[in-house]
Structure formats: structure tokens, C-alpha cells
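Quick one before lunch.
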Amino acid sequence: MKNILIIHGPNLNMLGQRENKWYGNTTLAEINNSLKQQNLAHYSLKFIQSNFEAEIVEHIQKIVSNHTNFLILNPAGLGHTSIILRDALLCITIPFIEVHLSNVYQRENFRHTSKTWDLAMGIISGLGAYGYNLALQAAQNHLEN
Ligand code: DQA
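Model of the DQA complex:
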């Protein structure tokens, strides 16, 4: 059994009601359900959403001891600002894919920079909720090859 952790950062619990122009109408529960449906045998998915930087950091730290094999992370606004998040990601040795629903390059300049992108195995930005499905597919592909 391979364990894949999906972390959704601050304000992503508001999907469906939040800036539909950028994030669409899909709720977080719908995104998670669609990943569960895509899930193949031999994979266990764990979902976390938090609005608290420290809580996200603690979940990332636990990756070291809890046999997580792959991380899919939407750090939301923290990705643009958080050295603490970067330091947490530097503690882990498993790969991660970073997902952004919106194309951050179509948006304000402050969203064009990141504290985490260079650490990611890959980045998906601008494909909406489908970006998560692609990330899960890529994670499975990585873990099988
Ligand atoms: C986001 C993009 C970020 O710039 C923003 O702060 C978010 C969501 C996205 O999924 O497109 O909260 O990560």
C-alpha cells in the first residue's frame, strides 16, 4: 500500500463560494471525492485542509515518520510568502507536486513568485479542479516507475 497525502492550504475550504472566476464552482469536497474515485487499488489517500500555517507544517513534519510516499500540495497563499512552509518541505525527502487551481501568472505580480516551486517535482497551475486529478495520476505514475 502506498500512501498519498493531499494538503489543501488556507481558504481552500471556501471553494465553490470563493472568487469563482479563478477557482470555478467545484467545492473542496467534490475535488476530494473525485480523487477518491480515481484512486486505484493499493493506494491510500489522506486529505487535509487547514487555514493554519503551523498545522500544515506539523502535517508535513509527520510525513517523515508516518510512511507517506507522496505529497500533493496546494499551499494557497502560503506558497507565495512562507519561509516556514519552505523549511518544512526541506525536512522531507519524498517528492511533491504543487497544484494551483488558477493560473497564477494571469494574476497579480505577487502571485508570480513562490517560496516552494523550486522544491516541487512538478507544478500544475491553471487547470482548475482537474489539476488535482492530473497530480494524482502523476503521483501514481511516479510511484510505479
Ligand atoms: C491558489 C492560488 C494562490 O495565489 C491563492 O492565494 C490561493 C489559491 C490556487 O489554487 O489557484 O489561495 O493556490
